[in-house]
Amino acid sequence: MEYIQVVGGLVLLVIAGDMLVGGAVSMAYRLGISKVVIGLTVVAFGTSAPELVVGVDAALSGAPTLALGNVVGSNTANILLVMGLPALIIPFTCYNLEVRNNYFIMLVSSVLFILLCFTAPLRWWHGSLLLLLLFGYLFHSYRETRKTRRLAREALEDVEGVPEKPLALWKSIVYLAGGLAGLVYGAHILVDGAVIIASDFGVPKAVIGLTIVAIGTSLPELMTVIMAAKHRHGDVAFGNVIGSNIFNLFAIMGATALTTPVPVPRDFLTLDLWVMLGASLMVFPFALRNKELTRSWGALLTLGYMGYLLYLSRHLAG
C-alpha cells in the first residue's frame, strides 16, 4: 500500500505541477502581469503551504524548533536541490530586473533572520517584525505589478509555452488552485508512504525527519521548477524559489514566533543558518546576469546538498 502511495504521490505531483505552471502563465497573460510577479507571490506562497502546515502544527504542538528546522532546511533545499536537480534535466536561464531585485530581498531577509536568531529565543516581537516585513514585501510586489502591467502582456506573447489562445481567466484560476491543491496533497501522501517504508527498513527517525520530511515539504517547489524549466519559463522557476524562501522566513517563522517562543539550537547558529545563506549566494551569478544554469552547475548544487545531508546524518549518528 505504501509503495502505491509513493507512486501515486509522484504522479499527482507531475500532473499538478504542469497544471500550476500552465494556470500561472495564462493568468499572467490575462491580467497583463509579469510572470515573475505571479511566481514570486501566488505560486511561491502556494507551494510553501506544506511548510506553513508543519510550522503551525509544530507551534500548536509545543515543538517550535521543528518549524525552525523545517524552514531553514527547506530554504537550503530550495536553492541547492530545487534549483540544482531541474538544471541537471533541462538547463534554463532567467534575466529579469524583478528577479534581481527580489533576489537581493531574499539575501537581506536571510541575513536579518540570522541576526535575529542570535537574539534567541525568538519571541512575539521577533514574529511581529517578520510579519510586518512580509506585508512590506507584498506591498512592494503590488507596486512592481502596477509598474510592469503595461509591458508584461507584450513580453508574454513572445514566450515559448504560452498557447496561442491562453486559458480564460476563470480556467486559469481553476488550474492554479487545482495545481496547488494537487501539489500539497501529492507531497503529503508521498512523504507518509516514504516514512513508513523507511521505518520498515530500520532507518532512524532522526534521519527520516532530516531527509524525507525536509525534502518532502520542498516537493511542490521542485515539481513547479521542473515544469517551468521544461516550458522555458525560467522566470517562474527563479521567482518561485525566491518567493518561497522569503515567505518561509517572514510568514512561517513570523507566525510561529508570534504564537510561542522559538529556541534556536547551537548547531543552527554555527552551521545550518550559514549553509542556508551560503546556498543563496551560490546562485548569485544567475540572478544578476543572463547566465544559463547549466547541467554542471546543477550537479554542483545537487552534490552540495547531498554532502550537507551526509554530514548531518553522520553528525546525528555520532
Whole-number mean pLDDT: 79
CA-CA gap between termini: 34 Å
Number of strands: 0
CATH class: Mainly Alpha
From the spread of the alpha carbons, the general shape counts as globular
- Count every helix, treating DSSP H or I runs of 4 or more residues as helices: 14
Helix content: over 70%
Task: Assess the beta-strand content as a share of residues.
Answer: under 5%
Unreliable sequence segments: 150-164
User: Which architecture per CATH?
Assistant: Up-down Bundle
Which sequence of SSEs, written as H and E, runs from N to C? HHHHHHHHHHHHHH
Structural class determined from secondary elements: mainly alpha
The largest β sheet comes out as:
none
Number of domains: 1
Describe what you observe in this structure:
- Helices cover about 80% and strands about 0% of the residues.
- The chain has one domain: NCX, central ion-binding region (A middle domain of Talin 1).
- It contains 14 helices and no strands.
- With about 325 residues, the chain is mostly helical.
Topology record:
Layout (H helix, E strand, L loop, with lengths): L1 H30 L3 H13 L1 H12 L3 H17 L3 H6 L7 H21 L6 H34 L11 H32 L4 H12 L2 H12 L3 H26 L6 H17 L1 H5 L6 H23 L1
Subcellular location: Membrane
Keywords: Membrane, Transmembrane, Transmembrane helix
GO molecular function: calcium channel activity; calcium, potassium:sodium antiporter activity
Short description:
With 318 residues, this protein is mostly helical. It has a single domain, classed as NCX, central ion-binding region (A middle domain of Talin 1, Up-down Bundle).
